[in-house]
Design a protein that fits this description.
alpha/beta, Rossmann fold, 34% helix
């Protein structure tokens, strides 16, 4: 099934660039997908209670493009203009919330869409809680990209790299990425480890066979960490192979002590090296 319904969260404190919003519209057009845009008005006081969450979700009436904001340069209006220019089907709404409650509200809204699209600024601390909520609480995949490189990013995923470690999270990411993998011309599966085992090789080759059943030709290899962090190895791999998209599982902080790939999640979330589809 193709990607047909994309969720795009916008909030005043996330500050997506004009180039990033244009790239969001361009990728939606490339996929032939509808976009549901939710803008969060966070221009109110912080939550009185630290555990105030999605139960306080308040949705305003859907606004017309002309009435969506008094500011013509707002992120919502900039995206709507790009969507119209590219003939992208979209709907939009504004919700009221706070910086504290917005992440949970957006994660709840994301559950009713195929994936969430999110531009990422380099080491943007204001974005962290929203990213984590969308990844770990929405139950849907997260497609992120580096907004500093937005104008130069491809809008088709011809070369795809899959980070594979036999985990449930990686398997979920592969399943979520199938619509994108079917249109790729080159799919590389890799396992990053200094202690490659027969089980690693067998699992990687089994994934090659599995993708083959879906009409997707892929290759598998193991690569050495050689003293680098897993996240940095991922970055180096996609750059060396000119990958358009990295597919990987996302792991919570509780995994860091027991699962060496946990640290890669934070590294990639803070600074994606290309388009990244991440699932938990």
């Amino acid at each position: 099934m193709p990607v047909q319904d994309i969720f795009l969260p916008l909030a005043s404190h996330l500050r997506p660039s004009a180039d990033a919003l244009g790239t969001c519209a361009a990728i939606a057009r490339s996929l032939g997908a509808h976009v549901a845009v939710v803008a969060v008005d966070t221009a109110i006081a912080a939550a009185a209670h630290p555990f105030q969450a999605a139960s306080h979700f308040v949705r305003d009436a859907t606004l017309t493009p002309e009435r969506s904001s008094a500011d013509p340069d707002s992120a919502l209006n900039l995206f709507l203009a790009e969507a119209r220019r590219r003939s992208v089907r979209c709907e939009h709404a504004v919700i009221r919330g706070t910086i504290d409650t917005a992440p949970a509200m957006l994660a709840e809204a994301a559950r009713l869409h195929d994936l969430t699209l999110l531009p990422v600024g380099s080491h943007d601390s204001a974005l962290e809680q929203t990213q984590l909520a969308l990844l770990f609480s929405s139950g849907r995949p997260l497609l992120i990209f580096p907004q500093e490189q937005a104008a130069a990013l491809p809008i088709t995923f011809d070369r795809v790299a899959i980070a594979w470690n036999r985990s449930a999270q990686a398997a979920r990411a592969v399943g979520d990425a199938l619509p994108l993998l079917r249109t790729a011309t080159h799919v590389q599966i890799f396992t990053a480890t200094d202690r490659a085992t027969e089980q690693d090789a067998a699992s990687g080759n089994a994934l090659v066979r599995h993708l083959g059943e879906h009409g997707i030709a892929a290759t598998f290899e193991t690569i050495a960490l050689a003293g680098s962090s897993v996240g940095k190895v991922f970055e180096s791999y996609v750059k060396a192979n000119a990958s358009d998209l990295l597919v990987m599982g996302g792991y919570g902080r509780s995994w860091l002590k027991e699962f060496t790939w946990g640290g890669a999640t934070n590294t990639i979330l803070e600074g994606p090296p290309c388009w990244v589809l991440m699932s938990h």
